[in-house]
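Methods: example folding runs. The two proteins below were folded one after another, and each record is reproduced exactly as written to the output file, sequence line first and structure-token line second.
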Amino acid sequence: MSAAAPAPLPPAARRFLAALFPGDASVFSPEETCVFGTDASRRQALPAAVVRPETENQIRELLRFAHAERLPIHCRGRGTNTVGDCVPAPSGIVISTARYADILEISEDDFVAVCRPGVVTGDLQAALAKKRLFYPPDPASVRFSTLGGNAATCAGGMRALKYGVTRDFILGIRAILPGGEVIVTGGRTHKNVAGLDLTRLLVGSEGALAFFSEITVKLLPLPEATATALCAHADADSALAAAGDIFRAGMLPAAMEFVDRTCLEAVTALRPLPWERQAGAQQAGAALLVRLDGSEGALAADLPRLERVLAGRGPLFIQTARGNAEQEALWEVRTTLNQASFRVAPDKLSDDVTVPRGAIRTAVARIQAIAARERLPILVFGHVGDGNLHVNIMHHAAAPDERGRALAAREAILDLTLALGGTLSGEHGVGLSKLPFLDRQIGPGERGLMRRIKAVFDPHGIMNPGKAF
């Protein structure tokens, strides 16, 4: 998708930004700003300007000016968002948090950390691990995405099954509103029911309400050990049935991931699958990955128990691992999927639909039927334990017929999701790409209420306009 030309920035606005953000802290030419005009959705729009604040006062002054001049503001972390939330459309000023990325405090007594929004989530987790502390949310982009971006979309990840999503671990936010006003929501206590929960309102608001200046997160003790089981099955339904068996056995894994046959075929193009090294191995139709965590003693008992449960569905292959390197080798079946997907086709329509847990077997079977009907490879994988499926419709966008079939498949999958009582997005957000479908899930009364709430925070609609709701 080619980048739209930016709206011209008034000369007075350019002078203001250059003075407030001196040197390379502000950039204006298309050659310098173009990299800030896209995200993982592959949508593009050129910003009118990009600024890189280092102090809260700079952000307050910017939002005061933008509010008065009615200039759109787009907050940006590392651009890993897949629904166009970081794309500056309509054209406006992008606030990059790359230089606003400090871990301000780690409290081993309060079990909290206080961070600027530009901190990479994986870097925070690494710093906490040295103190035997744990921040569980782990989106697939954890090594690159920022805490602010994760908070803006309420990112989930593999460990959401046991621990919850980003919203469950944010205790407080220091936020700057259009006009420059600072508000402080929540705090550093692990319980707080005083007043309306503005923190939970802000988390997941996709940059449409305020700029997050400081984020206070809840921490847990770091689990002593982890273990992984990889289980291959003849078909998707057997793998999904095994996932249900784990719950019925009274076990709650830290993570439980599903990948279908099309995913496995894609990964095979990069590296052999573990069971393919065995003589006479059958072709697998799906695989299940399960991670346990806890004390060494607990895992010594739980891992054999998990193996017994998995064996009950007659899998083609089971392998377990306790060492970090051995576990990561098993998880490559899941973690290499993004790069492997482009071995299937050059273009992708990506969604993260979520259905009730009890409907997941039906959802996967019907999505596979849609793939057969539209004659397209569709990768189905994801966080099966909480019903969150990632659906990648692979195609050649340059072929009009194939692009049309991909769009038809996407629409059918979204309609199927809603018919099963699901949601259009479990963790990626709405952004630009899902906005045309949102009225199928959320009624005009509810969306009107959301817009009125936005108007309280952002009267002139300058914060990430035209997205989310």
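Second run, written to the same file directly after the first:
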Amino acid sequence: MINFLNNMTVNRNASLEITKEEFKNIGYQLIDRIAGFLDTIDEKPVTPGEGPQALQKILGISSLPDNGSDAKDIIANATDLLMNHSLLNGHPKFMGYITSSPAPIGMLADLLAASVNPNVGAHILSPMATEIEKQTIQWLAEFIGVGPDYGGILVSGGNMANFTAFLAARTAKAPKNIKKDGLTSTSKKLLIYCSKTTHTWVEKAAILFGHGSKSTRWIPTDASNKMDNDLLEKAIKKDLKDGHQPFMVVGTAGDVSTGVVDNLNGIASICKTYDLWFHIDGAYGIPAAIVPELKQMFQGIKEADSLALDPHKWLYSPLEAGCTLVKNPKHLTDTYSSHPEYYNFSKTDHGPALNFYEYGLQNSRGFRALKVWMALRQVGRNGYLKMIQEDIGLSQLFFQLANNHEELEAITQNLSITTLRYVPLGYGDKSDWNEKYLNTLNETLLDKLQLGGQVFLSNAIVNHKYCLRGCIVNFRTSIKDIEEIIEIIAREGKEMHQKLTTK
């Protein structure tokens, strides 16, 4: 046997160790840099617009070092790299994809969580962290208005939150032998229903979990861009007549392109009639259910068998934080629970323990809940209500200013998402507009805006129109930012039109 302890002293001196004083000095300097970064974030470009080759040159392409470097120097270098060469989704003019400006208390929460490093897979491995995650899930259920009896689990984001519910739905509604014999054990095709505007996770789930892309029924939307529930019911009836087995309907609470909320109450009624699992993808929009004026819009959420929401979207949590909520948590344990002989997690002298590995796909799990829990405690229900209302109000202002601008066309406004496009001054009557050119113009304009660093928007296709899309889930965005963004779009749009027409 080779002796690997030849050169080891009694008191181990590991290369990763940092002394108390050094840790404090490095930590204080880092916190000072972060505080300064947050205080001046509005003065920085939203993005430097650097390409992969430029970034690789800045990073320095080299082999893995044989020997280590000083921790202080590494932290300083990494701080410069990230603060000066990143897309800043905390910038007040970032309105692109649905990634929120992260709450400062959530940043500190991640540092604290990493320092203890609990494995929130089993209660015995993470006693306090498990209880905090349980309480966080209870609070999230209360927040959106479905009640504290829902169970659930925190996951990485919207895809995983929806996947977790998808598999629970299949276990609940598919033939009971499917866990043992697989999908080939049933001759009936298991089918999922959703609107054409539903996020792509549905297709991904159908493919990855063995159903195939043809098992998804994409239901057309009505004039308001909601799933057409009459066509939904007709599709279910036809599939039942053809010998298939519908098992799940997905309603959307805030679609990613325009923010529209489906008629959830109507979907719930259809699911009851045909004994189908009703899932709501509310990854973006469902926190708006807290707004009293929008109560009618979200009717039906209490009927959902499961819901997905992302605290790292409209609850301003740092990435990653998604959540699956299930009306009957037993459906999660029926789907995910296993007890191999090397697990010794269920014995306790203090009553039953909740082990989150039995609620989802992961065994080892980080402490995602802490940053959500701390933010909920910091601002409470009323604090979130005010911020969400203000985000919606800013989106409405964005739409109104675009609508009143002679070179912009406001297209849609729902929740905190506005879509619009640039139309050159004097372009003529709408009936004569060259839609192909306007689409090219706005797509090229968006490319320039995304790299220019003044504002970051994304795109949406609405009724075949290529639109600029602004989604406000940012507690730093102000009225002044919206007014300036309108002028940036108009100015850059005019320049782009001149460039495209003088080639």
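Comment on the second run: The CA atoms of residues 70 and 272 lie 63 Å apart.
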